[in-house]
Each structure stands twice: as C-alpha cells, then as structure tokens.
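If you are new to this repository, start here. Below is one unmodified record pulled from the training split, so you can see the exact layout before writing a loader.
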Amino acid sequence: MLLRPGVDSLWRNASGFEVEKHGTNTAALRLVAPGAAFDVTLAQPLRANVKHLLAVALRNGTSAGLARVFWAGAGEAFEPVRSAWIPLVQNDDFLREYHCAIGLEPGWHGTITHLRIEPVTGMTERGIVVFGTIRLLETPSTKNYCHP
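And here is the target side for that same chain:
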C-alpha cells in the first residue's frame, strides 16, 4: 500500500504543521508547534500481520532524533500501546527511507484503518519535515528493527 503526500487525498493535517506541496510525490510540513502530528486514513482497512514493514521516506530538517507512528482501527483512539519509535537523522539534507518492522510490535493486530505520524517528538526547534512516501509492505524477514 503506497501513500503519497500532496497527491493522495488520504492525508489530512492533524495539528502543528503548515503543508506545502513539493513536486508530484512530496509534501513539506513546516513544523509550527512541538508535538505536531499528521494523520493518514487508509483507503482500505488493512488486516495486520507479522510480516508488515513500514517504510517512510522523509527529510528531517529539525533537531528531533525520533519519530513515532501510531495506528488504530475504526473508532479507536491513538494510544501508546499501539505505537512504535523510529530513529531519525537530525538536521538532514536528504530524503531518506526509514524502515520499521511494525508487524512485530505487540500492538500491531486487528484491522488498521488509521496511522498517525509524529515526525518530531519532544521539544525541538521549528523546522521542515519533507515527506516522500509512506508504504506498508509485506516482507519475508522477521528481523526486529526500526532504522534509516
């Protein structure tokens, strides 16, 4: 499943960002408040399985070193038990693809309908986060990792 910010209508600004379109497949989110979050509604509900890998392409133009992704089903709230941390390169000049074996997270089960991405966690300076794509893939690997 491929989601393209600035192209797909599945993206909506949750809070703390101003959205700027950057080309066909990227969108820049200008951070205007610490703790900002970005919500994604999946076009079709996704049945969670252990082989799911989350791939997020972004350029982190802030001093934050961690992003957090949350997931929920229809009518469910985003909660820490259904989330994963992704280490980020700080003050980066490059669009990188970060991977997280989300299927191995204890809370990844049931039917997923929404994702929330907090690309900047903790207190940080203002900056720009540029998103490329977010992909949910199935992988034969069961390696437990979240990394760039």
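Two things worth knowing about this chain: The CA atoms of residues 69 and 117 lie 5 Å apart. Residues 2-141 form a domain with the Jelly Rolls fold (CATH 2.60.120.430).
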